[in-house]
Design brief:
Layout lengths: L1 E4 L4 H4 L3 H7 L18 H6 L38 E2 L3 H11 L3 E7 L1 H7 L4 H6 L3 E10 L12 H15 L3 E2 L14 E6 L2
Parallel strand pairs: 1-2, 1-6, 3-4, 3-6, 4-5
Length: about 200
């Protein structure tokens, strides 16, 4: 099962079976409130490997963070949403669905590794705190990093640094080719893809 989490685009998916599947899962009690964004703790802010304080955009003329309208309205149409997939950007909805289905293993992929993949309500920080076995699919991610900012490395290296930070502090990673290996008894797994 894949949960598609294309942030800020839920209007496009309203009424679809994949959106309704996530919305209809009964509320599940969580050990703490599930928030939309999990901010970095002060120690993590100090030790974060890249400077993405201004949003990380590497456009020649950077728009102020948080200003819209966003250019995206849906997930890339080349990505199929089929079968038992779901669509949600809500950490609570996703948590409800996982509890309903007995899902305990989560593989996260998409963009942006340092923002949505790590910080969102469905992201690594929140899912690990909620007790899920989380893994990052590292070669299916990208970061929001501007090489004109610290540590002044290439965009690719900036993404690698974020992945190394996640591996050190939050969860292990794997390669996409590992997704094709069938593990006996692994029917309690799900992948979450953030805007792609």
């Amino acid at each position: 099962m894949i949960v598609h989490a294309p942030s800020d685009t839920m209007k496009f998916y309203e009424g679809t079976p994949w959106r309704l599947r996530m919305q209809r899962a009964p509320a599940a009690p969580s050990p703490f409130p599930i928030v939309a964004r999990c901010a970095r703790e002060p120690k993590e802010v100090r030790n974060f490997p890249i400077d993405d304080s201004e949003g990380g955009c590497d456009d020649p003329i950077v728009k102020p963070e948080g200003t819209g309208p966003w250019p995206w309205t849906r997930e890339n149409p080349a990505i199929d949403i089929v079968g038992f997939d779901g669509v949600s950007e809500s950490g609570q909805e996703i948590y409800n669905y996982f509890r309903q289905e007995g899902i305990t293993n989560v593989a996260l992929m998409g963009v942006h590794t340092n923002i949505c993949i790590l910080n969102r309500g469905f992201g690594i920080r929140q899912m690990t705190r909620l007790g899920f076995q989380v893994v990052l699919v590292r070669d299916l991610t990208d970061s929001m990093y501007d090489p004109r900012k610290r540590p002044f490395v290439s965009h690719t290296r900036g993404t690698e640094l974020v992945i190394e930070h996640i591996e050190t502090n939050w969860c292990p990673s794997m390669l996409s080719e590992d997704l094709t290996h069938v593990i006996p008894g692994s029917d309690n797994s799900v992948s979450i893809t953030s805007r792609a």
